[in-house]
Structures are given as C-alpha cells and as structure tokens.
Design goal:
- The protein is an alpha/beta fold.
- It is built from seven helices and eleven strands.
- The chain has a single domain, classed as Aldolase class I (TIM Barrel).
- It has an eight-stranded mixed sheet with strand order 1-2-3-4-5-6-9-11. The protein has a three-stranded antiparallel sheet with strand order 8-7-10, with helices on one face.
- It has helices spanning 57-73, 95-109, 127-132, 148-155, 163-171, 198-211, 235-247; strands at 9-15, 19-25, 80-84, 114-119, 138-142, 178-182, 184-188, 191-194, 215-219, 231-232, 252-254.
Amino acid sequence: MSLLFHDIIYGPVKSRRFGYSLGINLLPTKSKICSFNCIYCECGWNPNKTEENFTHSSDIFNQLEETLISIKKNNIPLDVLTYAGNGEPTLHPDFFNIAYNVFQLRNKYANGKKIVLLTNGTTIGKTTIQDSINYIDLPVFKIDSANQDTIKKINNPASYFLFDSYIKNLLNIKKPIAIQTMLLKGIVNNEPVDNTTNEEIQLLIEIYKKIKPIFVMLYSLDRKPPLSTLQKIETSQIEIIANLIKKAGITVKWV
C-alpha cells in the first residue's frame, strides 16, 4: 500500500514534526522518483519504470500563489511550507529556480513562515543544489544509520551514493541544518536490520557530533510500510535513545 501525493500543492496538513505544513510536491503526481528506495517509505517502492514527467515550474508557482492567497484571506493556520511529496524533491531539474521563486512567494504572502526541505541529500554535491539552500530556512537531511551495510538495507541508495562523501558535503553547507533519523527494526531479505542497537546509536552520535546540526529529529513508523516485516519502535525506547544523544550535547526532538 502506497500513499502518493496526487496534488502539486497540498494542505496545510497537521504534521507530526512541523505543525501546519503546506506541502510542495515537485515530483510526478502519479508515481515516485527517488534516489533512495527506503524500506519504510510511505510512497511505496520505486517503480521499475520511472515517469520523468516532473511538475512544470510555472504550474508550481501559479498553484502555490493561489493557495497562499487563499490561506491568508481565510486565516487558515500555517506554520511551514515543506518540499516533500513523491520522492526526492531536489531531483527536479529546475530546483534552483523553484527554490528562488518559492522564497519570493513566501516573502510576499506568508512572511515569517519557514520553508522546510526534506531531503535524502544525494544531490547536495551539485553546486546548484548547494546554492538553492540559500532559499531554504530549514534544510532537513536524512541519516538513518552511519553504518554502510545498514544504510544499504534501510535506504537502498543509488549506486553513486557514498556515505563519507555525503557527510563531507553536509559539512560544507554554510547554514544550520537539521537531521532526521527513522528508527526501526525488522527483517530485510531474510537478514535482521535494527538501527536502534547501542553500536548503531553510538555511530550515529559520532556523526551528529561532527555535523553539529541545530537539532536531530527521531521518529518511527506512522503508517504501514512497503516492507511488512518492519516494526515500529515504541516511544519509551525512542526516549531512551534521545537521552543518550542529549548527553552527547546534541539537541534532539522525537515524535
């Protein structure tokens, strides 16, 4: 069961992490495009054949402007504008131009509301993506594990993804960033996967300390994942993990 976003602009919806969020889906509205194929993704597995029909920039701007005008006129609650949707938003070939124009529309109609980017970071080595971060208030990067084998099991990254290079690119970003980590355990291809073990958490803490994010956000499964063998981590265990991260001097949130 997959949950695809069939609209370009959707919401505002009440987000577990960011309050009332207006979603911006840059990917096709009928399929998923992503450089990861995470075993927990609410959008389901990547399709065998990718639909490259990215949403046209002008359609994004027109629909966003109409929605922001309506939100302001009707006093609809709004906290953030969030790049999310059916996969990895920064794969859109016109992402820099989109980021700039969304920033301008936010300033015009929703000044004071933050722009959030949820990204797996696989494109952050590109200059245009690095430059686009200037127009994002809160870039939130994914790190579900600091163990290459566990990353492969959980995220199924594209072949070009190298974790060490990814971390180096994050360290080169000139503005504060946040990190999100999905906690889970289960069976993948008849092998156990668990990123909540003491060894896994200690490796994550070392990476968090190196990156120095403004905060780390921990969460677990909220909807049925595409891989049925996965288990949700209970809030009590997440809190224990959060306290370990806090002791390392890192600000942490969990939902």
